[in-house]
Write a structure and sequence with these properties.
Elements: H1 9-15, H2 27-37, E1 42-44, E2 48-50, E3 56-65, E4 70-80, E5 88-98, E6 104-114, H3 123-128, E7 132-144, H4 148-156, E8 164-177, E9 180-193, E10 202-215, E11 224-237, E12 241-250, E13 257-268, H5 269-275, H6 278-292, E14 297-310, E15 315-325, E16 329-340, H7 347-352, E17 361-362, E18 366-373, H8 376-388, H9 392-410, H10 412-426, E19 431-437, H11 444-448, H12 454-457, E20 459-464
Antiparallel strand pairs: 1-3, 2-3, 3-4, 4-5, 5-6, 6-7, 7-8, 8-9, 9-10, 10-11, 11-12, 12-13, 13-14, 14-15, 15-16, 16-17, 16-18, 18-19, 19-20
Helix pairs in contact: 5-6, 8-9, 9-10
């Protein structure tokens, strides 16, 4: 069957050179299959041989010239084991370049496919044998971001095609099929681009990214993510200078809990101010001083965790979350909600599709919300007084008057919350706590249909410290 080549296909060919054939499992068969795969272009092969001691077929010095002006070079293509069902397929020294300029478009040191189910991949072979790799690895990847090979990749990340380079030290994976992925890990990722979308030009580095147990890739309704991890990421561009130490997602609620954690996220506001247009710097510096107390470094930590417990007659949805802006503000939320799910709805279904929670019967429950002022509100009062040209006490009194007005409009529950905020603004308290108790029987629709009447439907206790 002829192989119809497209401009972006040479990279795919470099990663998936496979055609099955009925001929004998021999060096001649590998040569024949490679020639069939690259029939729509100019192909040259060096030595093609079989090891004398075991099943190991090797084709060396593969050079393929496409009709679109790209050249694929492979130093060695190795099939190990039974040719029809090999233990391993290995490509070494792979390079894709512009055949006119000889500029490199894509290269990698090695690609290893474990238990691929076939020796060389084509559409015909894939129809006969569905994709499944026991393992795969790629070392030493380098990609020209301004090439056709990169266009589809960068579009997924809202990065416009432009001059730049992407390098990845290692990629490792396990149990890959068309709809599932057991594990995927990238390490040593570094990119520089002249166009990072809204961020302008700049660079990006990531020490490690790992995904575990990803299923339902071809069906949004069946999507499942076991876990995801990003470690030591940094971006430096015309509009953003940021980094974080750790971002982790536990999406597997089979053990009754999961969540999201973000550790040591930092924005270098001083650097971003120097990169901003001169007419924007004064306003940005003012915001920076309020958020960071003059340090110019905004640091944030956050976690959002949930748990699900099965009781005899009902279920309990619980969780605790916290966001902390260092030297500025802290916000935490704890909830404990007993409920009865609709018939034939399992807890895992409700956690995957939160719309199912809309129809659950809530059996009371409580929510605790805590706001800790670590200096931000005091700085806001100072800023407001400076901008208005009035004493700080007058700003606080204006806030008190507004709080009383909100109470007249929305009821005593809202007034008590707003008056608690006034205590934080004037410095007589640094913590505001709300304890909310739900009625003995309700559902989420009860509250979403009448947001203005929501406070009167709940029991709200407000305390300041």
């Amino acid at each position: 069957m002829p192989f119809h080549f497209k401009p972006a296909c040479v990279g795919m060919a470099a990663c998936s050179l496979l055609v099955a054939g009925p001929s004998l499992a021999s060096a001649e068969r590998l040569e024949s299959d490679l020639m069939a795969l690259f029939a729509n272009g100019e192909l040259s092969l060096g030595d093609v041989s079989k090891a004398t001691m075991r099943d190991r077929f090797t084709a060396e010095d593969i050079v393929y010239e496409t009709l679109e002006g790209e050249r694929l070079q492979v130093e060695r293509y190795i099939v190990i084991g039974n040719y029809d069902n090999p233990d391993e397929v290995r490509l070494e020294g792979v390079r894709v370049e512009d055949s006119l300029t000889e500029l490199p478009l894509l290269s990698f040191e090695s690609l290893v496919l474990g238990k691929p189910g076939m020796a060389v991949f084509t559409d015909e072979a894939m129809r006969e044998t569905p994709l499944h790799l026991a393992s795969f690895s790629v070392d030493g990847i380098a990609l020209d971001l301004n090439s056709d090979l990169a266009s589809e990749i960068v579009d997924e990340f809202d990065i416009h095609q432009s001059s730049g380079r992407l390098k990845i030290a290692k990629v490792r994976g396990e149990a890959l099929s068309a709809d599932a992925l057991g594990m995927l890990e990238f390490s040593g990722v570094a990119m520089h681009s002249e166009d990072l979308g809204d961020f302008g030009s700049g660079s990006f580095i990531l020490e490690r990214m790992r995904i575990d147990d990803l299923r339902g890739m071809q069906s949004e309704q069946e999507e499942h993510l076991g876990a995801m991890l990003f470690e030591n990421m940094a971006i430096e561009s015309d509009a953003l200078v940021a980094s974080f130490g750790n971002f982790r997602v536990d999406g597997d609620f089979n053990d009754g809990e999961g969540g999201i954690w973000l550790e040591t996220f930092e924005l270098d506001l001083n650097r971003m101010i120097t990169l901003a247009p001169p007419d924007e710097r004064t306003e940005m510096r003012m915001v920076s001083n309020v958020l960071t107390d003059g340090s110019g470094k905004l640091a944030l930590d956050a976690h959002f965790t949930g748990r699900w417990e099965e009781q005899e007659s009902h279920s309990v949805l619980g969780g605790d979350s916290r966001i902390t802006l260092n030297d500025a503000l802290g916000l935490s939320l704890d909830l404990n909600l007993p409920m009865v799910l609709p018939e034939n709805v399992a807890p895992m279904d409700a956690l995957r599709d939160t719309r199912l929670l809309d129809t659950a019967t809530l059996l009371g429950g409580d929510i605790a919300l805590t706001l800790d002022d670590e200096g931000l509100l005091e700085r806001l009062v100072i800023l407001g007084a400076t901008m208005e040209g009035v004493p700080e006490a007058q700003i606080v009194e204006m806030a008190r008057t507004q709080a009383q007005g909100f109470g007249m409009m929305f009821g005593p529950e809202i007034q008590s919350v707003m008056m608690g905020m006034v205590e934080l603004l004037e410095g007589s308290a640094s913590q505001l706590m709300l304890d909310i108790t739900l009625p003995t029987e309700s559902n989420l629709q009860t509250y979403t249909e009448d947001l203005l009447g929501l406070p009167s439907q709940l029991s709200v206790q407000v305390e300041t410290r």
